[in-house]
Design a protein that fits this description.
607 residues, 25% strand, 27% helix, 9-stranded antiparallel β-sheet, Jelly Rolls, alpha+beta, single chain, 27 strands, 8-stranded antiparallel β-sheet
Length: 607
């Protein structure tokens, strides 16, 4: 046993010493051990991400022609970007002073999950604070030309999102918006677009402010919700691309990561609708007093039957029931607890007269019951419920009343809601319970191809990197082992052999112990008993030549039989053995062999 444990310990020690060195070799590292200091020399790292052709994916800040954009910022040039954006110094005027200020913290920095260090974004660092920041467009978007409006930007909710938004506002062109330090929730905007969530309420905002062509009033028009629930961007902590496409034919598309999630027309998919109804209810029209809207009425000619009893109960006592003979009507069901004692601190003046708590009457447990006997209830065959006259058609029914229609004095028909208020700035005005919200690659253009090309150099490249990095667990594992599965398989077998051998050894040992335990429960001769008997016989033969004394094992067997006094036959045998001095060796050997199993049991029990 000690040899086995020593061998296993030695083998495990060898694995621990050689294994790490073998592992480092397999993973592409060479480790030198010098005076207890481990120095790791890494081979050249493989490309972290490659395209379909095996080329390494490398990010560079996109180069663009400013003439193709009304606004563009990739935030990588921090100094230039910070000159574009203006942090709000305003205060909200409808809340408490201590939380009215726009004091949210903005920062230009790389994402927490760094893809490329030179890919910078605009990050909202604070939470539970009002935050606002805005930038002027390079050139206003006027909606006058026959060109679409494309708004596109990235959002990464690095800490997820439980309650808050990450939408943007396209600020209307007017004098009130010239000073962006005053940007707040009341600042006029033309379009609000982007994701928002609070609890289970998930939205993809697209709101535009429509100007009434008759009286100049402004109304917010809210786009209907997408059919699909867009939950992933709020919890996967990955970059997502939001795109709004607004065309001169009044159609729109909302895309998430290039996939269309909502589309339709400005004339039909918004609440309230852009154009009011041609007719409205006459506010002066009133319903006549004699207008009867009841379709059915109780039959006035119906009469309640004479045998109909409205007061009949649904259940009555069973008239055939008889009180059991052993029912004790004079015995109460509950009696004062005879073992209860009045508390020592009971004050009659304060607590009133003390009464022992009630307990079940023990007398009632041995009979059918105690107290006043009542017959069990059964259904009343005469019960019919309250009588009501049957319903008939109302001869005076005139239908549902509705006010008459009149022309809508505020009716207008705007067939080109695309022509909205011009846009001069873009702003982000948020209140969020989550921080670390990263905005990146915000563009406003009138060319969809330009937007697609821009995203291919930014968002698409980034997501390819992430997808390549975490495609499947297998790919991640293969990359971790430096794409040398053969060596790792060999190492696995190398480690498994001693481990498997040790497990097999434990199994065999447990099996042998179970067999020995079973042998203790029987007097049958076991395989090891024959060998033990032979060994004892040899010792007996040697001992007989040197000493005529009787074997101690025989005495043990006789004593174990009940410590009884030896009978005459046994006494005779003892006397003969003493006289003969060991002359009957063969007979003694047979006797010793026949008593061997009992001797083994006695020794086991004694131990």
């Amino acid at each position: 046993m000690r040899k086995t444990h020593s061998s296993l310990a030695l083998l495990l020690a060898v694995i621990l010493l050689i294994g790490p060195q073998f592992t480092n070799t397999v993973s592409g590292e060479e480790t030198d051990f010098d005076d207890g200091v481990v120095e790791s020399v890494q081979d050249d790292e493989p490309a972290l991400a490659t395209d379909e052709n095996g080329e390494e994916l490398v990010y560079e800040s996109p180069k663009y022609d400013p003439m193709d954009f009304h606004f563009v910022d990739h935030f990588d040039d921090t100094e230039k970007s910070q000159k574009l954006w203006v942090k709000s110094q305003a205060k909200k005027d409808d809340i408490a002073e201590e939380i009215a200020k726009y004091d949210g913290v903005w920062s230009w920095e790389a994402p927490q999950r760094i893809v490329w260090k030179n890919d910078i974004g605009l990050v909202l660092k604070s939470k539970a604070k009002h935050a606002a920041i805005a930038a002027k467009l390079f050139k206003p978007f006027t909606f006058e030309d026959d060109k679409p409006l494309i708004v596109q930007y990235e959002v990464t909710l690095q800490e997820g999102q439980e309650c808050g938004g990450s939408y943007i506002k396209l600020l209307s062109a007017n004098k009130a918006n010239d000073d962006l330090t005053k940007f707040n929730d009341k600042t006029p905007y033309t379009i609000m677009f982007g994701p928002d969530k609070c609890g289970n309420d998930i939205k993809m905002h697209f709101i535009f402010r429509h100007v009434n062509p008759i009286n100049g009033s402004i109304t917010e028009k809210h786009c209907r919700k997408p059919k699909d629930r867009l939950e992933e961007p709020f919890k996967d902590k990955l970059p997502h691309l939001y795109t709004l496409i607004l065309r001169p034919d009044n159609t729109f598309e909302i895309r998430l990561d290039h996939n269309i999630v909502n589309e339709g027309s400005l004339l039909s998919e918004f609440t309230p609708p852009v154009n009011p109804p041609r007719e409205i209810d006459d506010p002066n029209d009133k319903k006549p007093d004699d207008w009867d809207e009841r379709e059915k009425i109780p039959d006035p000619a119906a009469q309640k039957p004479e045998d109909w009893d409205d007061d009949a109960p649904p259940q009555i006592p069973d008239p055939s029931a008889v009180m059991p003979n052993d029912w004790l009507e004079d015995e109460p069901e509950m009696i004062p607890d005879p073992s209860a004692l009045k508390p020592d601190d009971w004050d009659v003046d304060m607590d009133g007269e003390w009464e022992a708590p009630l307990v079940d009457n023990p007398v009632c447990e041995k009979v059918s019951g105690c107290g006043k006997w009542k017959a069990p209830l059964i259904a009343n065959k005469d019960y019919k419920g309250k009588w009501r006259a049957p319903m008939i058609d109302n001869p005076n029914y005139r239908g549902k009343w509705a006010a008459r229609k009149i022309p809508n004095p505020e009716f207008f028909e705007d067939l080109a809601p695309f022509k909205m208020t011009p846009i001069s700035a873009v702003g982000i005005e948020l209140w969020s319970m989550s921080n670390e919200i990263l905005f990146d690659n915000l563009i406003i253009t009138d060319d969809l191809d330009v937007a697609i090309d821009y995203s291919s150099k930014t968002f698409d490249l980034k997501r390819k990197f992430i997808a390549k990095e975490s495609k499947t667990w297998y790919h991640r594992f293969m990359r971790h082992i430096n794409y040398k599965p053969g060596w790792w398989a060999l190492y696995f077998v190398y480690v498994s052999i001693p481990v498997g051998g040790y497990i097999y050894y434990l199994y065999r040992r447990a099996t042998e112990e179970d067999t020995t335990a079973d042998a203790k429960k029987t007097d049958a001769v076991q395989p090891d008993d024959d060998q033990t008997a032979a060994d004892d016989d040899n010792k007996q033969e040697a001992g007989t030549k040197s000493s005529p004394k009787k074997k101690k094992s025989d005495l043990d067997v006789k004593n174990s039989a009940g410590d009884a006094e030896p009978d005459e036959e046994d006494s005779g045998k003892d006397s003969t053995e003493d006289v003969d001095g060991g002359a009957s060796e063969e007979k003694e050997t047979e006797e010793s062999t026949s008593t061997k199993p009992r001797k083994r049991r006695v020794r086991k029990d004694a131990s």
